[in-house]
Amino acid sequence: MISIKTNNCDIHFNKSCYTHLNKYLHNNNISKIFLLVDDHTHNACLPYFLGHVETNLPIEIIEIESGEEHKNIETCLGVWKALTELNADRKSLMINLGGGVITDIGGFIASTYKRGLAYINVPTSLLAMVDASIGGKTGVDLGGLKNLIGVINSGDMVLIDTAFLSSLPENQMRSGIAEMLKHGLIQDEKHWNAFKTLESMTQEKFDTLIYESILIKKAVVEEDPNELGLRKILNFGHTLGHAIETYFLNNTEKEALLHGEAIAIGMIMESYIASKQEGLPKTTVLDIKETILKIFGRVNIGNNDITPIIDLLKYDKKNEHGNINFVLLENISQPKIDCQVETSLLHEAFQFYNS
């Protein structure tokens, strides 16, 4: 696959990743490399990655605990202290090897330590490949609330090697597919329809869909890097999805949902809202629901869960002037931003998902 050039950050694929990385390490005045991993990627991905790195530069490994529950300022403090103790300077390079949590938090740590270190993302999960590592959004959760602290700052490159997906659990693959489905729904109906034959898809075809998904996000981000307008469409499914994800993460009686699992629910619900409010055809809503449920199954959201989830919407980072803003579809590839929704319709959307 041909490398994708962006305004701030080039994206390289598979075998060419390491050619570009090694050239970068050779040509730049780097003092030391800091490799951020979690307890999963340290064992499953790091040996393979290091086997492709050609450099005499000193490499320090910093490991954090895996999981969204560790994407917080406390973890950042630990890494910032480790960087200090290991004598990181402003010519140091941070390489973030992991899923969306690693690329989000690693990018934030690099962007803020000594007012900014260079960094490279090496996403190892599908979700990070098609979404989290692309576009320069970095950050952490605050008090369990999603992504309230962060900056937009692209790394120097993204290296996407789909070989890492061979170690990924099935639920993590599904989590990434949710963002690919979203890209199709907001921008490309053909891309959306491709997932209806997912069970018979070849690896080559799936790699092509990864590439297409990245191109969709890249085009949106380049037109609106700071999310002042168009980039908001990437939040389809995320207003309710983030609230659901936060509720399940913080409720000890619930099994935590992966990001994509929650976004999949959000897309079904927000499609229903769009049918009532923006004229999205009912046949399309049912198609969206059927396609997503076929891949993800249904999560049990009880009646007692609905009001607490809706209450969490007030913390959504997209809110403006006291309004909770949704992205709703007028049709596939026709999203509308900054939509407000009545609470009664939110309750209906939960009943639609559960029906």
TrEMBL record:
Keyword Lyase: yes
SUPFAM superfamilies according to UniProt: Dehydroquinate synthase-like
One GO term (biological process): chorismate biosynthetic process
Enzyme class: lyase
GO CC aspect terms: cytoplasm
InterPro entries per record: Dehydroquinate_synthase, DHQ_synth_AroB, DHQ_synth_fam, DHQS/DOIS_N, DHQS_C
EC number of the protein: 4.2.3.4
Keyword Protein biosynthesis: no
Keywords recorded for this protein, A-Z: Cobalt, Lyase, Metal-binding, NAD, Nucleotide-binding, Zinc
One function term, GO molecular function aspect: 3-dehydroquinate synthase activity
Cofactor (UniProt): NAD(+); Zn(2+); Co(2+)
Domain 3-dehydroquinate synthase N-terminal span(s) in chain numbering: 62-174
Superkingdom to which the source organism belongs: Bacteria
Domain spans labelled 3-dehydroquinate synthase C-terminal: 176-319
Protein's job: Catalyzes the conversion of 3-deoxy-D-arabino-heptulosonate 7-phosphate (DAHP) to dehydroquinate (DHQ).
Alphabetized NCBIfam families for the sequence: aroB
The protein, known as: 3-dehydroquinate synthase
Naturally occurring in which organism (per UniProt): Mangrovimonas spongiae
Organism ancestry: Bacteria, Pseudomonadati, Bacteroidota, Flavobacteriia, Flavobacteriales
